[in-house]
C-alpha cells in the first residue's frame, strides 16, 4: 500500500496547530489516589458483590441459561475429581508386583472409570459452554436497552454538561460492552474455582502438604495479573480526552459532510498533523503500558517457576521419605498439573472479572446515578390545549456557565397568535423556545398553560402536544415517510397532507421510490437531499404532528428567497386557529406576527407589534433597518 506523504512545504498548510495541552497523558501516579487501594485482597473482597450484580443481570436475561451454566459446570468439576481419584487406582494396579499382563488387566476397571469420567466431564463442559454462549448476548441486549433507555430519557440539559459527556463516553466505549464480558468472566471464575476445589480436594486426600504448595506455585501470577489490570484501567482513564479528540479528527478526515471543505480549504495536511499529534499521544501511552505490563508479567512468571520447582522438590522428598506411595505420587503429579492449570485459569478469569468489573461498575454507577438524578418528573396529564401560555420570570443557566442564558424572562402567547422571538445570536431565543417546548426546566420562574404549571405535568406527554421545526433538525437515516411521521401513525392521508403544506411533496415526487425512499446515501439505493429539501422535510415533520403549539426555530435557514416566501405563506395558512412561536433572524418574515419579543443577553428588552417596534426606534428597528438597507439601491 502506498501512502502519499503530506507536503509540509505547502504554504497553505500552516504549522499553527491547536493547543493540545489538555491531552497530556497522565502518568501512572496521577491515578494513585483512585487505584492505590486496589490490591489482590481488595479484588477478592470486591468480586462477590460484582458477581452478585452480574448474576442478577444474567438471571434477568435468561434464568434457564443461567441455571444450566452453573449446574453443568458443577457436574464437570465433580467428574474432574472423580477422574483423578480413579487415576490412583490405575497407577496402583500398574505399579503392583506381578506379571505385566496381569497388572494391565487389573488396571482396566479403573481405567474405564477414568475414561468415562473424562467423557462425562467433556460433555458437561461443552454443555456449560453452550449455555454460556447463549447467555452473554442476552445480557448485552439487556444492558444496552437499559443504557439507551436512560440516555434517551435523561433531561436534555445533561448533554450540555462536559462531565456527563465524559462519563457517558466511558460507559459507551467500555462499560456497556463489559456487561456480557463480566458475566462471562464470572462464569469462568466459577468454572475454574469448581475445578480447583475438585483438584484441591484430591490433593488434600493424597497428602495435606501438597495443597499449600500448589498455591505457592501460582501466587506470583496473581500479583502480576492484578497489577496489569490496574495499569490498563488507569491508562484508559487518562486517554479518554485523547480518544474523543482522535475520533473527532478522524470523522473530519473521512466523513462525507466535511469532504468538500477539507479539499476546498486544503485542510488535509493540517488535519493529518493534528491527527498525528493526537495519535502519537495515544501511541506513547499504550507503548508505555505494554512495557510496564511486560515487566510485571516477567517477574510474575519467574517467581511462579520457582514456586513450581518447590512443589516438585517437596513431592520428591515425600517419596524419598516414604510418606506417599509411588501410585499416589503419580496421581499427585497429574493433580498438581491439573491444579496449576485450573488455578491459572482462575487467576486469569479473576483478572478479567476485575478489569471488566471496573468498566461494568462504571456502567452500573452511571445507570444508578442517572436513574436517581432529578428529572422533569411531573406526573400530571398535560392540558389538551390552552387559552394562554405564560412564562414568568424564567431564569435558566447551562451547566458550567457563570452567566445565565435567561435572566428573568416573561412572555405570553395567546391561542391562535403568531408570536416571534428575535434578537442577535446568543440572546436566548432558542433557549427560551426549548423551555416553552418542555425540553428544559427553568432554574426558577414558571411556565403555565392557563393555570397549569408545566413543572407538575409529565414532560413526555407534554411534548406530544407541541410540534417543533428546528434549524438543526436531524437528517434521519430512514425513509422519507418515517422522516415525516417520526414514529407516529396517523395514516397515509395525514402524511401526504403535511408534505403538501410544507412543500415537501415536490421533493418526494422526485425520489425514485417516493415515500419509501431511504434518505441516506451510505446505504444501498439511498438518496441524498439538499439542505433546502431537508428543510422542507423537517417542516412537514412539524406540520404532521398537528399540535396546538407549533415552534418554528429558523425554519427557512436553508431555503432560497422564493421557497422562504412560500413557506411563510404556508405557515400563516396552517396557523389558522393554531398557535405559532417563530424564531428567525429574517425580520421581514415577522412583519405579520401578532407580537414580537426582542431578546438581548437573556433579557426581553422590547415587546410589541412590528409597527410599534419600528416606531420605537430601538434594537428591533436597528436590526430591521440593517436588513432592509441591503435591498435598497
From TrEMBL:
<dbReference type="InterPro" id="IPR039421">
    <property type="entry name" value="Type_1_exporter"/>
</dbReference>
<comment type="similarity">
    <text>Belongs to the ABC transporter superfamily. Siderophore-Fe(3+) uptake transporter (SIUT) (TC 3.A.1.21) family.</text>
</comment>
<feature type="transmembrane region" description="Helical">
    <location>
        <begin position="107"/>
        <end position="131"/>
    </location>
</feature>
<keyword id="KW-0812">Transmembrane</keyword>
<feature type="transmembrane region" description="Helical">
    <location>
        <begin position="182"/>
        <end position="203"/>
    </location>
</feature>
<protein>
    <submittedName>
        <fullName>ATP-binding cassette domain-containing protein</fullName>
    </submittedName>
</protein>
<feature type="transmembrane region" description="Helical">
    <location>
        <begin position="298"/>
        <end position="320"/>
    </location>
</feature>
<keyword id="KW-1133">Transmembrane helix</keyword>
<keyword id="KW-1003">Cell membrane</keyword>
<dbReference type="InterPro" id="IPR011527">
    <property type="entry name" value="ABC1_TM_dom"/>
</dbReference>
<dbReference type="InterPro" id="IPR003439">
    <property type="entry name" value="ABC_transporter-like_ATP-bd"/>
</dbReference>
<dbReference type="GO" id="GO:0005524">
    <property type="term" value="F:ATP binding"/>
</dbReference>
<feature type="domain" description="ABC transporter">
    <location>
        <begin position="389"/>
        <end position="626"/>
    </location>
</feature>
<keyword id="KW-0813">Transport</keyword>
<dbReference type="GO" id="GO:0005886">
    <property type="term" value="C:plasma membrane"/>
</dbReference>
<keyword id="KW-0472">Membrane</keyword>
<dbReference type="InterPro" id="IPR036640">
    <property type="entry name" value="ABC1_TM_sf"/>
</dbReference>
<dbReference type="InterPro" id="IPR003593">
    <property type="entry name" value="AAA+_ATPase"/>
</dbReference>
<keyword id="KW-0547">Nucleotide-binding</keyword>
<feature type="transmembrane region" description="Helical">
    <location>
        <begin position="66"/>
        <end position="87"/>
    </location>
</feature>
<dbReference type="GO" id="GO:0015421">
    <property type="term" value="F:ABC-type oligopeptide transporter activity"/>
</dbReference>
<feature type="transmembrane region" description="Helical">
    <location>
        <begin position="209"/>
        <end position="226"/>
    </location>
</feature>
<dbReference type="GO" id="GO:0016887">
    <property type="term" value="F:ATP hydrolysis activity"/>
</dbReference>
<dbReference type="InterPro" id="IPR027417">
    <property type="entry name" value="P-loop_NTPase"/>
</dbReference>
<dbReference type="InterPro" id="IPR017871">
    <property type="entry name" value="ABC_transporter-like_CS"/>
</dbReference>
<dbReference type="Pfam" id="PF00005">
    <property type="entry name" value="ABC_tran"/>
</dbReference>
<keyword id="KW-0997">Cell inner membrane</keyword>
<feature type="domain" description="ABC transmembrane type-1">
    <location>
        <begin position="67"/>
        <end position="355"/>
    </location>
</feature>
<keyword id="KW-0067">ATP-binding</keyword>
